[in-house]
Write a structure and sequence with these properties.
With about 190 residues, the chain is an all-alpha fold. The protein has seven helices and no strands. Bound molecules: 2-acetamido-2-deoxy-beta-D-glucopyranose (3 copies).
Length: about 190
């Protein structure tokens, strides 16, 4: 009878132990910081708190972001910036192909295309700087990257006398993503 009790309860205890270990590792994962916590920390204490919802929405949509620590999210945000600038160049090319633009608008589109292509090279450099821990180089690169999108918007601002540029959303996404990535990296120090 005693022997039978032991044979039943040992596997049961092992199961309990396994469940306890699993629960512990889940807790550890959660305490590493959620996307919300990392975005809140990165955007706090400056003029960037308005970016927190954008930070959360864009990063939560990215594969691998759940359970990533700040360092991992910094890499994900920088890669998202690279993808965004690549997509922006494609969008600009499509707009140029579609045609129907005035001469000044064509000039503005050409300026945007040049700026975004230049910026793509610099995002590549930023990805490398982050991977090798050169955080000052990274910050300088991302400053140049964000400026390209602002320059594009400004090129249209002059043409459309303050009206909406056809690249407004593209430019805003680009600036916001670049800023979010740079803020997360800054929060690592
Ligand atoms: C960019 O971020 C600002 C907050 O800083 C927000 O108001 C704006 O809607 C965002 N732009 C886009 C395209 O999501
Ligand atoms: C750029 O990033 C923003 C924010 O993640 C996203 O909403 C948008 O769809 C991206 N744009 C392109 C063209 O991929
Ligand atoms: C970011 O992109 C690089 C280069 O494509 C890749 O090696 C790396 O795994 C990516 N990192 C993340 C976190 O997605």
């Amino acid at each position: 009878m005693a022997a039978r009790l032991v044979s039943v309860s040992v596997p049961f205890l092992l199961l309990l132990l396994l469940l306890a270990v699993l629960a512990g590792s889940r807790a550890a994962l959660a305490s590493a910081g959620t996307v919300e916590q990392i975005c809140a920390k990165a955007t706090s204490g400056g003029s960037h708190s308005g970016l927190a919802p954008f930070c959360v929405a864009s990063l939560q949509a990215a594969p691998g972001s759940a359970g990533a620590d700040a360092r991992g999210l910094a890499a994900i945000a920088t890669n998202l910036t690279l993808a965004n600038y690549t997509a922006a160049v494609a969008t600009i090319k499509e707009l140029q192909k579609r045609g129907g633009w005035s001469a000044p608008q064509r000039d503005a589109l050409a300026t945007c295309r040049t700026r975004y292509i230049e910026a793509l090279n610099v995002v590549h450099s930023a990805v490398h700087a982050l991977a090798t821990g050169r955080l000052q180089d990274y910050a300088a690169d991302m400053g140049v990257v964000g400026k390209a999108a602002t320059d594009c918007e400004d090129a249209f601002g002059a043409v459309n006398s303050g009206g909406r540029s056809p690249l407004r959303k593209v430019d805003e996404d680009a600036v916001n993503l670049t800023t979010v990535a740079a803020l997360i990296v800054r929060s690592l120090k």
